[in-house]
């Protein structure tokens, strides 16, 4: 069930239906039991898997990299049913509080997609509020030293994929638990899943640069294979975003468009949930480009249109 990664770190692949289909949970061995990193979504199949784990391993505590559904999904269940203490960042707790109000979140998402020209169907969101309705047992902040197993790790704030995302770095072993900040074979989606129009791409580029300060022998991601050459992967992801932004600028050469139309031009016809991620990725790149003054945005009949600076822009 568990794959041994190092002398004290084990990986449990938690599989489920929908979304990414699986998440890597890490169990770090200590004198008082195992520290678990992330859980998978709340579902019968994930609970059954963890119940088998609990029969064979003593769990000391649960620590979360961030509060997206596939990472925090069973945290409340861990705490309430098995009395396992749950630790989250203070930034994560703020996101949990937002996640408890599904009505407000849906309203923000609805307004966001309407403003940027997308129909509501591909961005329909389910009610996940119940997984956030608990009080964590403890908190950590930026650069705190936290104990995972028997070793001390540094909590590194790495926003972008999520505003509350943290990586955990162990300097003696040069191991970094990297969550969804960097993945091996695909780029993490940089989206606006709470419906707040922020600039997460700017945060993400900043956080990628932060990682370059750390010598990393092995990075353990929240999905997919381990990463042995983190610097190279960081460069690959940065370059991919730059190419995607160059593509958007080329598409806008002769016409200003909404984020929805630009997504269709860049990725092709809408494909259910995949299109939601593509739309969010496009929108956050457009926001970043506009903040960098590389493109301009204008409002027409309540919708945002993006185009090149040389074009004439008149707001209504």
């Amino acid at each position: 069930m568990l794959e041994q990664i190092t002398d004290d770190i084990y990986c449990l692949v938690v599989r489920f239906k929908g979304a990414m289909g699986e998440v890597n949970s890490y169990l770090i061995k200590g004198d008082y039991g195992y520290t678990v990193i992330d859980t998978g979504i709340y579902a019968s199949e994930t609970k059954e898997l963890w119940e088998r784990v609990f029969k064979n391993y003593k769990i000391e505590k649960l620590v979360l990299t961030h509060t997206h559904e596939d990472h925090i999904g069973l945290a409340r269940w861990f705490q309430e049913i098995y009395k396992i203490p749950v630790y989250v960042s203070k930034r994560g707790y703020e996101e949990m509080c937002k996640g408890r109000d599904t009505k407000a979140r849906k309203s923000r998402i609805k307004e966001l997609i309407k403003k940027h020209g997308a129909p509501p169907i591909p961005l329909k969101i389910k009610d996940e509020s119940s997984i956030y309705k608990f009080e964590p047992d403890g908190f950590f902040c930026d650069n705190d030293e936290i104990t995972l197993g028997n070793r001390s790790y540094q909590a590194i704030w790495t926003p972008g994929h999520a505003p509350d995302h943290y990586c955990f770095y162990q300097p003696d072993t040069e191991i970094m638990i990297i969550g969804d900040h960097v993945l091996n074979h695909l780029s993490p989606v940089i989206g606006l899943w709470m419906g707040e129009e922020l600039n997460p791409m700017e945060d993400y580029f900043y956080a990628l640069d932060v990682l370059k300060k750390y010598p990393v022998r092995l990075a353990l991601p929240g999905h997919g294979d381990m990463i042995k050459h983190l610097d190279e992967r960081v460069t690959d992801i940065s370059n991919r975003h730059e190419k995607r932004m160059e593509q958007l600028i080329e598409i806008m050469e002769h016409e200003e468009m909404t984020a929805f139309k630009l997504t269709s031009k860049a990725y092709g016809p809408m494909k259910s949930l995949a299109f939601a991620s593509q739309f969010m990725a496009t929108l956050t790149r457009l926001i970043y480009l506009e903040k960098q003054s590389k493109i301009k945005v204008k409002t027409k009949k309540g919708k945002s249109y993006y185009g090149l600076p040389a074009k004439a822009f008149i707001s209504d």
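The chain is about 35% helix and 20% strand. The mean pLDDT is 93.
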